[in-house]
Design a protein that fits this description.
With 71 residues, this protein is mainly alpha-helical. 66% of the residues lie in helices and 0% in strands. It contains 5 helices and no strands.
Amino acid sequence: MNADLFRATVRKYMELRHIRTLEQLRAHTTVGSSTTFRKYYKEPERIPIGIFLQIMKALNVPNEEREALIR
């Protein structure tokens, strides 16, 4: 997974969905720790697929862009 593309996509959709902070985004997932969530954000290759899907669902990212991130 391209880390820069992941972060750019997340930031783009956070702005579109009026989610201002990573903490607000974390609240839409099952990740309990904000430290763990920030670690996943900085190193997206470590994100479990379930958490990745929760983030994408919370941001309502289209399937085409989700697939592009995984490749």
